[in-house]
Amino acid sequence: MRDSFILTSILSILLSAGCSSFRSPNEPKQSGTLKDTFKGNFTIGTAINADQIRERDPVCGKIITDNFDAVTPENIMKAEVIHPEWDRYDFSLSDKLVDYAKKHNLEVNGHTLIWHSQLPSFVRRMKDADSVRQYFTNHIKTVASRYDGKLESWDVVNEALEEDGSMRRSIFLEKLGDNFVVEAFKLARQASPNTKLYYNDYNIEEPAKRAGAIRLIKKIQAAGVHIDGVGIQGHWNINHIPLKHIEDAITEFSALGIKVAFTELDLSVLPSPPNATGADVNQNVQYDAKLNPYTEGLPDSVQQKLTDGYASLFRLFLKHSDKIGRITMWGVHDGQSWLNNWPVMGRTNYPLLFDRQLKPKPAFYQVLKIKENYSVNNQSHQKNARFN
Q1: Helix (H, G, I), strand (E, B), or coil: what is residue 176?
Q2: Domains of the chain
Q3: Which residues contact 218 (CB under 8 A, 6 or more apart)?
Q4: What is the pLDDT of residues 127-185, one digit of tens each?
Q5: What is the pLDDT of residue 383?
Q6: pLDDT per residue over 55-95, tens digit each?
Q7: Predicted pLDDT of residue 25
């Protein structure tokens, strides 16, 4: 079992390390692209990693520039990377990201200014509130001001809520109090007045956590502080896509006068461990082969379920496209996905629209067809309305 686990882990790491440039000469070309298909409805984005920012694989690069008009850095703008020491910032990769986006006419969503996870070690060691507040203030001002006018948006605060809608117990809540989210948005607005500001979280389509997110957004607004939108992460499983809750969330968040974005969309096809909930990156479940059933490829029945799941979601997104600003896939292709190693290390997951060989999956073509059918149906309804 251990040898099997090690072999599977090595394979997953190799597949996840970057894009493979292999492509069969007989492979059919995709017809249509995501960004062209949904132009005029909402922006289509993807999360990209350091190698993609460095443009180390031209095949993967073409998928990005053909299909997406926005990018979110998967990790390089998180605090542990961009602010590794108290008095030192490392903007090398984030500057390169901005240059990459400008070169390819892509919008950038900054991710993320304040998050309790992936903090630099010096912050985790802090004991007094004054030090935390100084870090908090300096970090937001320094990072946000550097990219004012260069980013389309920021995820200002990430994952500040518990599943019951209460404030998450974090170093920021403990040391700064429950007003820290309002303060973060205030500082971000001052430092970057030309950038849209979002609150981002997972499971905020679920009723209890959604209620907490609405309270938090109303609190920001009541303080006279600017907020442009809310990001629903969208880490779901093909066996449970809460469409009714998602639609309710779109409607209720939009009623607050803000835009809705789906910021980290992927659909896991694997069994969920019994004790794993939400999308907390700190969860770590022991490997079990029963939780990794598709190491040799995805059965047609599961591929169809994935396709149907994406079709249902994009049908809903189109229905509410007047309220939605952006849909961002959390990764370009399956081999890159964080879900290969979360919450169980060494699994083989298939959650995105492009596979490990960089080929569009049936779900990709179905998503394009959803828009085509939606447009035809709308034209038919309009025509019937004129003659009735």
Answers
A1: helix
A2: 32-383 (3.20.20.80)
A3: 256
A4: 999 999 999 999 999 999 999 999 999 999 999 999 999 999 999 999 999 999 999 99
A5: 47
A6: 999 999 999 999 999 999 999 999 999 999 999 999 999 99
A7: 38
Phi, psi of 109 (to 5 degrees): -105, 115
Residue with tokens 């469409």: 243
| Token digits of residue 236 | 């779901």
CB 108 within 8 A of CB 72: yes
Contacts 24+ apart (CB under 8 A), 124-129: 124/171, 126/171, 126/175, 128/175, 129/175, 129/176
What residues act catalytically?
264
Q: What is the pTM of this model?
A: 0.90
358: left (phi over 0), alpha (psi -120 to 50) or beta: left
pLDDT of amino acid 378? 65
- Where do the H-state alpha helices sit in the chain? 2-16, 34-37, 50-53, 58-67, 79-82, 92-103, 121-124, 129-146, 171-176, 180-191, 207-222, 243-254, 300-319, 362-387
Cα distance between residue 43 and residue 202, in whole Å = 20
- d(C-alpha 337, C-alpha 306), whole Å: 15
